[in-house]
Amino acid sequence: MLEIISGSSVKKLDADFIADRGISSHRLMENAAQAFCGWFEKKYHRNDKVGIFCGHGNNGGDGLAIGRLLWRKGYDIIVFLVGDFDRASADCRLNRELLPDKLPAITMNDEDIKHMEFDLNVVIDAVLGIGVNRPLEGNILHMITKLNGLSEVSKVAVDIPTGLPSDECLKGEAFRADVTVSFQFPKFSLMFPEHAAFVGKLHVVNIGIDRNFLSQFSENKFYLQKKDVVDRHISFSRFSHKGDFGRVLLAGGSYGSMGAIKMSAEAALRTGSGLAACLVPQCGVNIIQIALPEAQVLSAESENNLGKSYPQDSLKRFDAIGVGPGMGTNSDAVSFLKDFFTRYHGPKVIDADAINILAKEKELLNELDENCVLTPHLKEFERLVGACTNHKERLSKSMVFSKKYRCIVVLKGAHTCISFPDGRQFFNSTGNKHMATGGAGDVLTGMITSFLGQGYSVENATLCGVYQHGLAGEIASVYKKRGTIATDIVRAIPKSYLVLKID
Ligand SMILES: NC(=O)C1=CN([C@@H]2O[C@H](COP(=O)(O)OP(=O)(O)OC[C@H]3O[C@@H](n4cnc5c(N)ncnc54)[C@H](OP(=O)(O)O)[C@@H]3O)[C@@H](O)[C@H]2O)[C@H](O)CC1
Ligand SMILES: [K+]
């Protein structure tokens, strides 16, 4: 499991690692540069014109080493020196000395920055890394603003885009990367949705600091990747029957919002549930039966919203229940939820309007069962806990909430964060902007509910559900791009199993 460690600890981590392994800091920088180049070579051609913008700290040192290595491999490289090289760090200075004489290196003063026309296909940003300690200004600000304005240029940030603090929210300007190649682990602030436009795609390369070593610096924050979920899946045998794959119920829907519960139930079936049923108000019965013939339908007595009268006794048939999608928040829906909380104490996912009801009726929070899963998007979460000034605050409040109510909070968004009551937070690595579409959350509810019904522990169900939902979104959007809709994500769930090599 890849740790996310705060930037303030990285200096100590580097120093301890170097001392422990008896290597030089220059060697570690060389490892970082090699790892970057290994990634770069797979993406870019030797006839691309590559400009590497280097500052005077170790991030600049990385950039200079990258320049040397790529130049040796035959890339067309120009190095631009941006910063105060009289104050260069030791490894930056050494890498500057190691630059081959024939490799052009141009010192940029403010006039050059203003007037220079860049004829480049690729810009590599190695001006500042995690050492940034104030908003950009002067030369560096002008340089970064100019680079951000270049069009039809591929922009790559080394470790972290220049200007982004590693653990805080951005104040001022930063480099807007298409891709950020971060060393060893993603820096915490790369997980913030406010920074998505600066980070671009995130890629993490290994620079040789092993997991065991990193774990000494653990801050209980983890980056959730493919290898972390594969072993969490249950294998079923050829003798498995419908019951083994779990019976789940999705409760919700209201007049005009029946699609939400249909998508949740369909997602549960595509995730592998042996049986999925929908509990809907009367107006939804025919809709669900026609739209999703594989689902059973249970009807509440009321016409347009779930209400207090519904087939209560049938709840015990289900191995897991997802509640909330399309449910509405009127008084009928509130009385349904209150009744449901008193009757069903099995594994459950609480989403959408069920969360909105919790936000309105705060005393209901005390009825939450230990280990229930809440899946708010950012707005729903703030309705629950109050307005937050930024994502860092949201993340800290979601941890506090999870500990207080002993529940699992899935804070949805780019790098969905899953908080567990023991203080661990997992940040998802899958998914993309094309998943920001109505109904995507209903699909996630169906998937997590399905895994709970299949007998996964709540931890495994949540981590597998979030990871695979993002993966299905990536698969769905390969050709559909911004035309991707939630049912495309549902249809891509089977293929996500193929990618994970799970049958
Ligand atoms: N394990 C790893 O991840 C490794 C990372 N490496 C790389 O090292 C950088 C971090 O290097 P560091 O030297 O600590 O920091 P920076 O390169 O980011 O630069 C720090 C210098 O920048 C000055 N500074 C800070 N803020 C500003 C600003 N807004 N404007 C101008 N200058 C600024 C600061 O000096 P001051 O005295 O002026 O405050 C520093 O001199 C990491 O990101 C990786 O890329 C290693 O290569 C290997 C291991
Ligand atoms: K950088």
Automatic annotation (TrEMBL):
Domain YjeF N-terminal, first and last residues per copy: 10-215
Catalytic activity: (6S)-NADHX + ADP = AMP + phosphate + NADH + H(+); (6R)-NADPHX = (6S)-NADPHX; (6S)-NADPHX + ADP = AMP + phosphate + NADPH + H(+); (6R)-NADHX = (6S)-NADHX
EC number(s) given by UniProt: 4.2.1.136, 5.1.99.6
Keywords, comma-separated and alphabetical: ATP-binding, Isomerase, Lyase, Metal-binding, Multifunctional enzyme, NAD, NADP, Nucleotide-binding, Potassium
Co-factor requirement: Mg(2+); K(+)
YjeF C-terminal domain ranges (all copies): 225-500
Binding site for K(+): 59, 125, 162
Residues at which AMP binds: 412-416, 441
GO molecular function: ADP-dependent NAD(P)H-hydrate dehydratase activity; ATP binding; metal ion binding; NAD(P)HX epimerase activity
Co-factor note (free text): Binds 1 potassium ion per subunit.
Family label: Belongs to the NnrD/CARKD family.
Record's function text: Catalyzes the dehydration of the S-form of NAD(P)HX at the expense of ADP, which is converted to AMP. Together with NAD(P)HX epimerase, which catalyzes the epimerization of the S- and R-forms, the enzyme allows the repair of both epimers of NAD(P)HX, a damaged form of NAD(P)H that is a result of enzymatic or heat-dependent hydration. Bifunctional enzyme that catalyzes the epimerization of the S- and R-forms of NAD(P)HX and the dehydration of the S-form of NAD(P)HX at the expense of ADP, which is converted to AMP. This allows the repair of both epimers of NAD(P)HX, a damaged form of NAD(P)H that is a result of enzymatic or heat-dependent hydration.
Protein known as: Bifunctional NAD(P)H-hydrate repair enzyme
Protein's organism: Echinicola strongylocentroti
Gene that produces this protein: nnrD
